[in-house]
Request: fold
Amino acid sequence: MKILVTVKEVAEAEDDFEIDGLDIDERYLEYDLNEWDDYAVEEAVSIAEEGDDVEVVSVTVGPERAEETVRMALAKGVDRAIRVWDDDLATAEMLDVGAKADILAAVVEEEDPDLVFTGVQANDDAFGATGVALAETIGFEWAAVVNRLDLDVEGGVASVHRELEGGVDELTDVETPAVLTIQTGINEPRYASLRGIRQAQRKPLDVKELGDYGLDSSVLETPVSRTAMYVPETESDATVFEGDAEETAGQLADLLRDKGVVEG
Amino acid sequence: MTDVLAIAEHRRGSLRDVSFELVTAGRELADARGGDLHLAVVGGDVDAFAEELNVEGVDTIYTVDEGEEFNHDVYVQVAQQLIEEVEPSTLLLPNSVNGLDYAPAVAERLGVPIVTDAIGVAGDDPLEVTREMYGSKVETTIEVDAPELVVTIRSTEWDGAEGEGSADVQSFEADVDESQVRSTVTGFEEAGGGDVDIADADVLVSVGRGIDEEENIVLVEKLAEALDATLSSSRPIVDNGWLPKNRQVGQSGKVVTPKVYIAIGISGAVQHVAGMKGSETIVAINTDPNAPINDLADYAIHDDLFDVVPALIEEFGGESPL
Ligand SMILES: Cc1cc2nc3c(=O)[nH]c(=O)nc-3n(C[C@H](O)[C@H](O)[C@H](O)COP(=O)(O)OP(=O)(O)OC[C@H]3O[C@@H](n4cnc5c(N)ncnc54)[C@H](O)[C@@H]3O)c2cc1C
Ligand SMILES: Nc1ncnc2c1ncn2[C@@H]1O[C@H](COP(=O)(O)O)[C@@H](O)[C@H]1O
Reply:
């Protein structure tokens, strides 16, 4: 069996930042493996550990910098990784959902996995759409926002819990092959061990171009474009307690006493 | 092709609020584009739903009597057939867990672009969608220069439509290919339960990822004890197993409305806010003055929780454990 896990290196803005044109200035961004993808990697790796002969491959569409994140996934037990990037991707204005789905679909076609795990959402642009769009593109069945998975490999069924709003799970049986978008909390992602990190250095990490999958820059053409980014005007009308911790704690304590919600 | 088609959402016999928010957003969009607003409801007691959905602003309601509950394979097919019939420029869907389970597939099947989690829509052509990025720290304008598209809207961003409507209600006969239904919903399960109900508390001390380490949870436990309050949390704390699931506030946890909600090291992500915005008084303790929780807070302390919380414990005669 083969499981393909899509992973994205996401950017997080520091507390103080500046916007440069259509994005936050590079200097104020920190990069990390997307939280949801960390859970997706763990889910795949733990399935591989329980079963015989399960290969876990991860794929990212991202620049060279993303290799650090991909190595993290390898250190946690992914067997092999693919990074798709080339000049066309580097100069693309925006990678929208459709473009990502088309690129990842080409990778799925080549790799022919039984299952694809993506995260529910990428924490930076948070489309929350890539996994389901990918499933439709490749003709796989799918389930979004999965917080529990029982796999019946023989029967070709993934029994999942989908986490709906309000603390209710939907129980669904999904035919495989399938794309599952993985929700945080489904498992406990491991930390990479030192041994894992050493081994990751020797695991294959192939860099592929669009052309290697028979794609060209037309796959990146999209009617969707970002035309502005700004810090929204604050809606805050909060009373800000000023001073050192003793003073602010004192003011908060007075407030709580005034409200009559605490004793003492 | 200036019409808007929205598809309502229901679960276990009830329409969800976002269905009425779709009407408001859809009306706005239809007016901007000079078209009609069509609303469809798929599955369940469609006639009763249609009656409820017949609020001001809706031009046509299509009832599609197909199944009881949401199934994405059915919804994708029905959406596609409705679009062939109505030929809308925009398909408007909720950015809910179920919305995200089929909207991207519909867009992909039709070969049209999708923009998710909209908090604003404007302009006739091209359409301008406002959405957030980087954990709500910035907003962006997304322009879509396409004759047809799919947009999903964030819940509670638009008010729910009310008032008596005069929509033309039609039943729509969908032709669902069962061989293409490859998933089966087998039931629902209520998560949580347990010893405490955070929804009952007058004062909630709520902790987020700013607490950093499991060992530090004692600090907020101690504060809750000193205040005679109840401890709750954001999702990552529960995901990490530091507190049980029944303590989670938010979209996938509990909705709480205490007299005072003290958010400690919580950024205020939309899914968290969904669970606590109805609190009477909101206090935020966060090092980041720009964290979105500040937009909601009535009182804020922009400082390190590891300084403020011990001082607060001492104010109430307790002793800081750290
Ligand atoms: C489908 C779905 C459902 C979800 N459901 C929920 C839900 O029900 N509930 C929920 O909470 N989330 C939910 N989430 C997750 C949500 O998107 C956020 O990831 C989560 O709420 C973030 O939690 P947080 O604020 O604790 O962490 P972060 O966003 O990481 O924020 C930590 C905050 O702590 C501050 N901080 C750091 N150090 C300190 C310090 N020393 N002193 C003071 N402040 C400090 C930081 O400035 C930051 O603002 C859901 C997500 C999805 C996709
Ligand atoms: N550039 C990318 N490379 C690989 N996987 C991605 C990329 N962007 C998104 N994904 C996957 O799709 C999921 C959802 O992302 P999104 O739809 O962008 O919110 C992420 O959790 C990733 O697993």
Remarks:
- Chain B has two domains: 4-180, 198-315.
- Residues 4-180 of chain B form a domain with the Rossmann fold fold (CATH 3.40.50.620).
- Chain B is about 25% helix and 25% strand.
